[in-house]
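Kindly draft a sequence, keeping tokens residue-aligned:
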Amino acid sequence: MPVTDFLDRNARLYPNEVALVELNPDEKDTRRTTWKEYDLIQPDRFEPYRREITWGVFNEKANRFANMLLGRGVKKGEKVAILMYNCLEWLPIYFGVLKCGAIAVPFNFRYDAGEILYCAELAQVDIIVFGPAFIGRMEANADRLSKGRLLIYVGDSCPTFAESYHELVADYSSQDPGVAITEDDYGAIYFSSGTTGFPKAILHKHRSLTQAAEMEQKHHQTGREDTFLCIPPLYHTGAKFHWMGSLVAGSRAVLLKGTRPETILSAVSGEHCTIVWLLVPWAQDILDYLDAGELRLENYSLDQWRLMHIGAQPVPPSLIKRWKAYFPNHAYDTNYGLSESTGPGCVHLGMENIHKVGAIGVPGYRWECRIVGEDGAEVPRGEVGELCVRGPGLMTCYYRDEKATAEALRDGWLCTGDMAMQDEDGFYFLVDRKKDVIVSGGENIYPVQIEDFLRRHNKIKDAAVIGLPDRRLGEKTAAIIEVKDGMECTWEEVEAFCKELPRYKRPKEIIFHEIPRNATGKIEKPRLRKMYGADQLVAQENRG
């Protein structure tokens, strides 16, 4: 069954129960902050507020949007992009797209104007739905983006190059649009990047979405009485599909805008949250605040909090040991996954296996795993090879990229690009990455983008970006810079130059050194990582 059926069921059975809460604690005033300064989570209003909708209203909003799209001539299989911060409108719009038979295409809200245009054209998007924070980035290429596309603005004071969401949906029915959808229909496109740094469009069928939703509910035993706290952005497969456990269960979720330790604990306490998904830096911050006495657990109502789970990056065992000292009654889980496998969970630790912290776990619900060598043959337990996964949440293809699809999908298996080993108990451990991707604070960073940017500096001859160990983020970006002959360049100069980059892409460390390249001209990243103590970095993080 498609995930839209769960929404219809909840609206029928629990119409007056709260489905979603949007909570903005107003952590800081960001009115003078440019988009390039934004953290992973960013409020789009500047005063505290709390909003909520019931399952009945959620479904009505989704139906109105679906009927509006159909009324504007959107056909089954056409694509609708969503470019918004987390808000109460996000998920009803997403489900409205699914209900009309179109393909939902979430955009990373960190995309700059050029990346928005690139992804819109790569995925052949027909409609873009965007929020107030993105007016400037949309306007930069408005002529090209609006050519053959409908641009829909969600917010007040609609810009002239778009149409107003609220005005468009006002006159449409809140009844189900009646479009027949099967699990074999295409449902969503997500974006990922390869070593080149250019996004790939990942096409999934509805079967993938249903699998992810049912798996999440099963892995974490989400029930009707649970309340899930969602902090990461909904464009991310992790956030959305962890939330879908609540969808399957018919239970409440809270969309929190803010990541400060006191903000998270206040939300857990005030909203009676029982399940919380954290990224490693946020968990580290909470523990550091508790250690320093800046937070006191007795000031919060936390007895109902039963599960803390972490994903998106390796989890140091030391972190979980510290966590259990403060929260001895918490169940714990970690999840591994990729956008190509519909997000987290194709491998998961399992709440019953906390004694195996450091492992990514065992195959998730309905998934299979194996580790293969360079020849494609499965390696014996204890030996390192590439992790491959297979299951009903696997992508159909990289949209419009047959070559990349053939490289990633082999005989029905997804080659993850991650090096792993399986121990004698059947648990999988990440060891290293075949790809150059850096995972910093749960965010994927692709070195080539930063390297290309650095080479624009008139004093920089060559640049290489690698990940170095970092206690809080897991990895931090380090730029190795080779200065042009006869010139001098300082850390301060490079730092000032990098202000043009979004903050999360800026190098956290700058090293001046010659860049080693092989006979074919490729940067010798393994050599650099070894030079600076970052070889087998993932294994180092796991040992934490």
In short: Residues 29-45 have pLDDT under 50 and may be disordered. The radius of gyration is 23 Å. The chain has three domains: 3-205+248-255, 307-433, 440-543. Residues 307-433 form a domain with the Luciferase; domain 3 fold (CATH 2.30.38.10).
